[in-house]
Amino acid sequence: MVDNDDIVLQGNNPSTGIKDLVIETLKNVCQDVGAPAAAKAQAARTLAEISGLLGKYQATPVEDETQGETLSESDLDKEINALRNRLKTKK
To answer: Rounded to 5 degrees, what angle do the CA atoms 53, 45, 61 make?
Structure first.
């Protein structure tokens, strides 16, 4: 049960108390062995969105400098051989 003292709106943003309640409730749904699978999945997704792991609030991935770089066949062979040599020296 939500106590009215916990629901304090500041502009359009709920207070920390209600945010904690929402997160705790979603966690409980995820852990409830009797909850339907669809409810658990939606609660988990909502928690991931709140945490910034999914959705429009997701952190922008840091791009690797080599990402999207095209290697010629000979350059690819050189990279593979270099990796093999590193593995051999580690043994």
So the answer is: 20
